[in-house]
Design a protein that fits this description.
- With 114 residues, this protein is an all-alpha fold.
- It has one domain: Ribosomal protein L20, C-terminal domain (c-terminal domain of poly(a) binding protein, Orthogonal Bundle).
- 74% of the residues lie in helices and 0% in strands.
- The chain contains 5 helices and no strands.
- Helix 1 runs parallel beside helix 2, helix 2 packs across helix 4 and helix 4 packs across helix 5.
Length: 114
């Protein structure tokens, strides 16, 4: 069997790692082992925070809805429960946008729930 040398592919792999680490500080931008370690951490945090971002947005929407409801004297939990009982299927993202940008429409939704 003929011998296969893997130098070309190994160099391509190393260059790709260093390309991803562009802009990092100190040895992490130029030393392959440090760059790989930094990238492993960076990609792990990126994955975790993509998931975390969804919860943060939901908390923001809840706060916006609660702010609009507090002016009307109704609690957030009672409002969400009443929406479910009336089978009004608006998600929190849409409710928050309506409450912020179209307060009169939000008043009508609130009247339908009461």
């Amino acid at each position: 069997m003929t011998r296969v040398k893997g130098g070309v592919h190994a160099i391509k792999k190393r260059r790709k790692i260093l390309k991803y680490a562009k802009g990092y500080r100190w040895g992490r931008k130029s030393k392959e082992r440090q760059a790989r370690e930094a990238l492993l951490h960076a990609w792990t945090y990126a994955f975790q925070h993509r998931k975390k971002k969804k919860g943060e947005f939901r908390a923001l929407w809840n706060a916006k809805i609660n702010g609009a409801l507090s002016q009307e004297g109704i609690s957030y939990s009672k409002f969400i429960g009443a929406l479910a009982r009336k089978n009004i299927s608006l998600n929190r993202k849409m409710l928050a946008a309506i409450a912020e940008e179209h307060p009169r429409t939000f008043q009508k939704i609130l009247a339908a729930v009461k």
